[in-house]
Design goal:
By secondary structure, the protein is an all-beta fold. It is built from no helices and 24 strands. It has strands spanning about 10-15, 20-25, 30-35, 50-55, 65, 70, 80-85, 90-100, 115-120, 125, 140, 145, 150-160, 165-170, 175-185, 195-200, 205-210, 215-220, 225-235, 240-250, 250-255, 265, 270, 275.
């Protein structure tokens, strides 16, 4: 039997944003689905599939573009091809090119095409900077203060395989109260990652993992210096994760649940307490005990969200 195939493969769909569109999602990989299986040897050709990022000037084609390293996922000869991107795409403009070096199993080449899209930063989050797979290459978290006495630093990254490990760092002072929280977008089942926190001297502060990626813990920093957060697989989840470090400066108190310390103000004749905390999921609630309150006393509550 002799079959003649003169039909070139065509792109049917992709998980990348549409032409001219933008996204704030962390793109740590993508798939391309074609009308027919492809020749595996052409998938990694420099004239096959490529992804360029605009350089420092933010304009594609100006000579300072950056080639994004793509890692081909296991390919079984089907119509869908997948690629991983270590650390994900940072904010900027990108262009996917399907070149004439791409071919199906009998050598038919597609018409060259491109797709340009933008990745925008998620406000308040620092994206991991690859490589950050060792403690010396840890991505630093930057604290932002607001309201006064409350400092927040947040990061987002991606785990691509069981071999992938990310490190983050933050500066802390002895006696500082810290709340640490994590999540995976959408809270999928079996997506928990392993988070380990160590102090400036390498001492172990804690290890956290969960079923759906959400963790929440509070502790007091034992020393002044740089702290490390190590992120690795716990189940087999690959994809985006987010973490947050909340630090308070007296008189702000970090009280997860319990009785805050009411401080006297002799001038205003009142007792006051400023408490910091976080609600990270639907249905969560923090409770605080004020102690004995006499008849006729007034209790005033003011709530403020971080800047």
């Amino acid at each position: 039997i002799r079959l003649t195939d003169n039909v070139a493969p065509r792109l049917v769909s992709t998980t990348l944003p549409a032409e001219g569109q933008s996204t704030s999602s962390l793109i740590a990989g993508f798939t391309l689905t074609f009308t027919e299986p492809l020749d595996p040897t052409t998938l990694t050709s420099s004239t096959g599939i490529s992804l360029l990022g605009a350089g420092p000037d933010g304009v594609l084609g100006n000579g300072d573009d950056v080639t994004v390293a793509l890692t081909l996922r296991s390919y079984d000869g089907g119509t869908t091809v997948g690629f991983d991107i270590a650390g994900g795409l940072g904010a900027g403009r990108y262009r996917l090119t399907l070149g004439t070096g791409l071919a199906d199993r009998v050598g038919n080449h597609p018409v060259a095409s491109t797709r340009t899209f933008d990745v925008v930063a998620l406000p308040g989050y620092t994206s991991e900077a690859e490589p950050n797979n060792t403690s010396t290459l840890a991505t630093p978290l930057t604290f932002v203060e607001g309201p006064p006495g409350l400092r927040i630093a947040a990061g987002r990254g991606s785990i691509s395989s069981y071999l992938d490990t990310d490190y983050w760092s933050f500066a802390g002072t002895a006696g500082q109260e810290i709340e640490f929280a994590t999540e995976n977008p959408g809270d999928p089942s079996y997506t928990g990652l392993q988070y380990q926190i160590t102090g400036p001297d390498g001492s172990y502060l804690g290890s956290y993992s969960s079923y759906e990626g959400r963790n929440e813990a509070s502790f007091v920093l034992p020393a002044t210096g740089t702290y490390l957060i190590r992120v690795s697989q716990y189940y087999t989840y690959t994809g985006e994760y987010r973490l947050r470090v909340l630090a308070v400066v007296p008189p702000v108190q970090l009280v997860v649940s319990g009785t805050p310390e009411l401080l006297p103000d002799s001038t205003a004749k009142v007792l006051t307490a400023t408490i910091a905390g976080a609600v990270t999921r639907t249905g969560q609630a923090d409770s605080f005990a004020l102690g004995a309150v006499d008849v006729g006393q007034q209790v005033q509550l003011t709530i403020a969200r971080p800047a």
